[in-house]
Please model this.
Amino acid sequence: MTVASVLMRPFERSHRLRALGWFGYAVAVAGGGLALGVRLGLGEAMPGYPYVTFFPVVVLTTFFGGVRPGVFSAVFCGLLAWYFVMPPGPGFQLFWPSTYLALGFYAFVVAVNIALIDAMEQALRELGAAQRTTTRLLEEQRTLFNELQHRVANNMAFVASLLGLQKRKLDPDGVAAAALEDARARIFVMERIHRRLYDPQQVEQPAGPYLEALCRDLLEASGRREVACRVGAVPMVFSFERLVTLSMLLSELLNNALKHAFEPGAAGRLEVTLREPGPGLVELAVRDDGRGLPAGFDPESGSGLGSRIVQGLVARLGGTIDWRPAAGGRGTEAVVRFSAEAARPAPTASGPGSGSESGSGGASAPAG
Model:
């Protein structure tokens, strides 16, 4: 809630009363009579202040009735005070300099009050109109931005489809077909990531459900429905930039596992975990129960595109990656550790031990 909206609220609530027309004049007459009674009741307790009880009436009348009823209230209250309160007694009498000074002071004060209230109301109305215009333009900009992102995602999906069609014209077992398939799968996953991350509600949600959805997308892109994936994540929300990098890294690790960890058509199981092993540290682990690391595997010497992408994304996170045999001696585990600086606890999410099953992939040795 903005300051302008708070200040405008009393004026907006009094707008209906002002629209009645007669209400402001009624307040002036009733308030003037009440102020006169109070002032006469005070008597000599406040000598020299004939208008002190009439000033609030003018202010309230201007506030609830507008400028014209405010001016009427100022004149009406001024006459009442002049006739009934000012010495020496009832009547419109003029004495120099006391009467002139009192009338002049009263006129000056009520004129300033009326002018200030009217100026404040006009300023707040202009500010409210500008705020509504800004909100409308922001909503239009958000709509256009979402439409642009939708079109970009559609274009990526179209390119992925074109690559799939082009692949059909090549030898399915050839190098060119494999390269086109890799490109198609990456573009497909990027299109899914793009759609999810440019939904504001998705970005503000805990990472666990998002990672599960990403695993499902990868499985759909690869067609490996016989491979299942379990995701377990602590309730954590990442910044937009960190979530983009993390999504691309996880997609590369899972895509690599689907290609290298399991025999074609063989069932498999993968596990993705996201946890905080220590203060200020986040750990992303991807495990599979596939055939494990090849003999003499050296992650630093990998020259394949997948290895270079993984290393570049890990470097962007400012973290490290460790490849090792999975627990139990079967399969591979890739562990990425990076700073939790851009992460924060999620307001609501499942606990660290929670997880869900979905068809997706896990990690193995990087593609060479």
